[in-house]
Design brief:
- The protein has one domain (4-81): YaeB-like fold (2-Layer Sandwich).
- It is an alpha+beta fold.
- It is globular and about 30 Å long.
- The chain contains three helices and five strands; from the N terminus they run E-H-H-E-E-E-E-H.
- Strands 1-5-4-3-2 form a five-stranded mixed β-sheet.
- Strand 3 (51-56) and strand 4 form a beta hairpin.
């Protein structure tokens, strides 16, 4: 069963600022999260309680999963060096 995918506003803005080729790869990865929210290679982020991350090249997509509502919410899309900072 497919999950709905949503973005917090800041993640939408981060997505819009990506270069076109990176944007396309990130978009494909997010579409795959709708089918499989815990794909091979995903990991829980210890600093960000309850959130997962996937790697897309040099970028990380950090997201929450709500299994009851069948929803994946993208929280941030950033380069690895900035992905886990609280701000």
């Amino acid at each position: 069963m497919a999950y709905a995918v949503g973005f917090v506003r800041s993640a939408e803005q981060e997505f819009d600022r990506l270069e076109e080729d990176v944007q396309w790869r990130v978009h494909q990865a997010i579409l795959e999260l709708a089918e499989q929210p815990r794909p091979r290679g995903c990991a829980k982020v210890k600093q960000l309680k309850g959130q997962y991350r996937i790697r897309v090249g040099a970028y990380r997509v950090v997201y929450l999963i709500d299994d009851q509502a069948k929803m994946v919410k993208v929280m941030r899309i950033r380069p690895r060096s900035q992905a886990y900072r609280q701000n």
